[in-house]
Amino acid sequence: MWTLKKNMEADRRGRVIEAALQEVERAFTYSSGRDAGWQTDGFAKLSLNRKPLTPGCLTWGKRLHGGGNSLYTGIYYWRRDLGRDIKRVEQHVGGKQELEFIKLLRETLISANDNINRYLKQDPRWSVFLLNRIGHHEWVPEGMTSDTDKLRPEWLGQWKLETEFLDWMPLSVQPEATYATIYKDGGATRITFQTPTAPTAPSHDAVGCQLRYSGGLTYLPGKDLESATSTKTVLGYLRTYSLPTIREVFKPLKPSNRYKQVLVQCPEGEWFDSLRVRFLLLAGDSMIEVMGSGKTVRHFRRVSSSASAPIDYARSAGSSAKPVTYPR
User: Fold this and answer.
1) Which residue has the higher pLDDT, 136 or 155?
2) What's the whole-model pTM score?
């Protein structure tokens, strides 16, 4: 009985530490929790880091996409089952009720941050080892800046929604007239989605979302057009969906090319408190957006190369009144 209790307590502590790794904003070292080969695993040991790092693969919101037989490669994301039935919550948060687990997590994060401040106060030279998080997966050494928000000029301009897929199938009705504007805002690149004809702004409308390269590329799809399923699609392995259907969804992409993934960071996109997926792929004058849980895909067509910021921010009800930056 004593051994069982001891093991449960160890598991509880382990779950809290796993969750803290996913939420912490700065650290002296960082590990994805598994030897998965991500570039950021180079931060697992205390060392003098000289450049920002991303994982070097496709990201999927809070998760990472290795292209193999599973979407998520890394430690279990703690928010996934919170708010569902208590048995699953208890299973994944180490036997604690939801609020108690969050309390323990918050205390751990505060303690870790206080320890960093204590080290820096004792000897400011510790700052050469300090890492700052941007978004979910990028880490930047103290005193350095990231250039993942410096998108190439071909991204800039006005875009119009042409086609929308839900659960990998095209919608039977014509999508509403949604426009996207990608523009420069100082040193950052931003995007605003607006649907002027809608009586109220749809949930996917957003204002001033920051765009950043994830550091990942799409995968090369399989060549067998008649195959029912495959582990080789542009997004890697996609279980239970027919390969011809997936290829139709990503038709604007050339099968011989790999495309850079650009993250959409804002409360309506990828944000620190959700599993939401939202990213873009660019193929000439076509832009593909993957959003929601990853099964909603929209195709945009470039209508102008004008890079000026949109004026009518108020159209996006429920969105921020001004451009936002990931709070890290």
Assistant:
1) 155
2) 0.83
pLDDT 10s digits, 180-191: 999 999 889 999
Residue intervals in the chain for CATH 2.40.128:
153-218+259-315
How many angstroms separate the CA atoms of 325 and 271, rounded?
10
Give dist(CA 236, CA 14) in Å, integer. Answer: 30
d(CA 215, CA 193): 23
| 121 token code pair | 């106060």
d(CA 211, CA 265) in angstroms, rounded, equals 6
For residues 126 and 117, what is the distance between their CA atoms, to the nearest angstrom? 10
User: How confident is the model at residue 77, as a pLDDT?
Assistant: 65
Domain 153-218+259-315 has CATH 2.40.128: yes
Asked whether 205 and 194 are in contact (CB, 8 A), the reply is yes
Residues written for the chain: 328
How is residue 72 written in tokens?
A: 């998520």
CB contact at 8 A, 149 and 211: yes
Tell me what pLDDT residue 234 has: 83
Handedness of CA 224, 226, 231, 233 (dihedral sign): positive
